[in-house]
Amino acid sequence: MTSLHYLFQEYWPHLAFLLSLTVGGTAAVHAAMTKNDVRAAIGWVGVILMSPLLGPFVYLVAGINRIRHDHISEQRNKYIKDFSGNPSPPVVDVSHISAAQFRSLRVLGDRISRFPLRDGNHIKMLEGGDQTYPAMIAAINGAQKSIALQTYIFDNDSEGRKIVDALVRAQERGVEIRVLVDAIGSKYSRPPIIRLLRSKKIPSALFMTNPLGFLRMPYANLRSHRKILVVDGRIGFTGGMNIRAGFVTAISGTATASDTHFVVEGPVVLQLVSVFAHDWQFTTKEELPYETWCGDTWQAAEPQAPARCIRSGPDRYMVGTHNMLLGAFAVAQTHIRIQSPYFLPDQILLGAINTAARRGIVVDIVIPGRNNLRLVNYAMTAQLDQVIRNGCRVWRASGNFNHSKLITIDGAWSYVGSSNLDPRSLRLNFELDMEIYSRDTALEIERLIDREIEQADLVTLETLAAIPFGKRLRNRVIWLASPYL
Fold first, then answer.
1. N or C: which end of the chain has fewer CB within 10 A?
2. Which residues on neighbouring strands pair with residue 160, listed in sequence order?
3. Alpha carbons 203 and 187: distance in angstroms, whole number
4. In terms of Cα–Cα distance, which of 306, 311, 310 is closest to 413?
5. Which residues are CB-contacts of 449 (< 8 A; sequence separation ≥ 6)?
6. What is the pLDDT of residues 265-300, one digit of tens each?
């Protein structure tokens, strides 16, 4: 021991150098060999080399995707199957339903989603918590067989507790219930709602609580941002809304935030529950039996439309939404409308948006005038000139914060769901969106966006240049960190 102690004291600088060289070199090689984005690879290699001991630890925690692709890959198994006798076979030609230019987009969706595009879906838009939460509670109150609920934020407030109370009543009737909340999103309220759910004996779990295996901490970079409610395998809810009292007028009054959600009936509900089932199995290892959680028939009202779910996340569906939007912007012929609370697309997506504008397509982008994330707002402002100078119109909405994520193309195709147009949603989060081929749905969404535009302020290069230099510099510095916001 004495000699070892002496050797350590004498040669510790050399040992530290060898350790840092080994650890740093291994981490740098791993980053160079596994990162597909050259900027990400350069960034991580730079962090590792600049700090050979701390850098590899940061890379271990935040830079490695530990989600095995096969854990949540789509399998045709006993609870996710395609109905050969389904009254709504996969839609092949969408030209007569929406427009001819969307034929190629339907093919793109086939290859990205692996869910078939199904007709026979009735899709209704819900505005804000005043419409969404009562509709969700009514569906839960009518449940006879099963309730699957997944969300990013589920606050322990008056609205959250109303939904818990409805779940308790359903459970007392013998309804099977599963609730999945993101580990980061659960921390938005104290005490977290998961404690209340467990005290009521409602089967519930937190998504991604301990992915490293030895650190008791949520893996903050990989979050489930999906919003799903499926009742009896027949009625589904999805969109951008979390469960928070801030979206209810009776509680928040003049400070009520806005958002948009959708209730759906039809074959696309099976796709919603299949996404939930995979996430639940990944989190808890429990397989949900098909007979309990899926419906074989639907009684969807008119009008009906083809729709399908698009998954994206740090797994085999990486950049699913990113690729769908690239295709959608490429086929646009007249008008693109985008409403997003966090508009920070990468250079590839910016290029597609700008190319559409340069082709003569009218591109309207609506962002909040008041944003709930100050740093994101600064970064967004720093990037707006890149779309404005290419002919896009950017509008800052008046009024309270609007969390809606809506896109329409040519009044015939819509893209709605949980994805923001920022690096986190496009590459890190597990997201769920829905593409809809319907002029009726697109028109309804367009009216909502146009209503925002009527009360919005147009952002111009002149208004951006009028921002004091100190604030513009601040915005650009924060914009440099936008992939990590």
1. N
2. none
3. 19
4. 306
5. 337, 339, 364, 366, 406, 408
6. 999 999 999 999 999 999 999 999 988 898 777 778
3-class SS letters over 289-349: CHHHHCCCCCCCCCCCEEEEEEEECCCCCCCHHHHHHHHHHHHCCCEEEEECCCECCCHHH
CATH code, domain with 387: 3.30.870.10
For the record, the structure tokens of 422 come out as 């920022």
Domain hosting residue 177, numbered range = 77-103+116-307
Taking the C-alpha atoms of residue 143 and residue 443, their distance in angstroms, rounded to an integer, is 31
Which of 296, 290, 71 has its CA nearest to residue 176?
Answer: 290
Interval 140-161: pLDDT, tens: 999 999 999 999 999 999 999 9
pTM above 0.85, yes or no: yes
Question: In a 3-state reduction of DSSP, which class is residue 105?
Answer: helix
Tokens at 453, concatenated: 């535009």
Per-residue pLDDT of 348-371, as tens digits, reads 999 999 999 999 999 999 999 989
Please state, in angstroms and as integers, the Cα–Cα distance from residue 270 to each residue in 231, 289, 330, following that order: 11, 13, 29
Instruction: Quote the CA–CA distance of 32 and 42 in Å, as a whole number.
Output: 8
Number of domains in the chain: 3
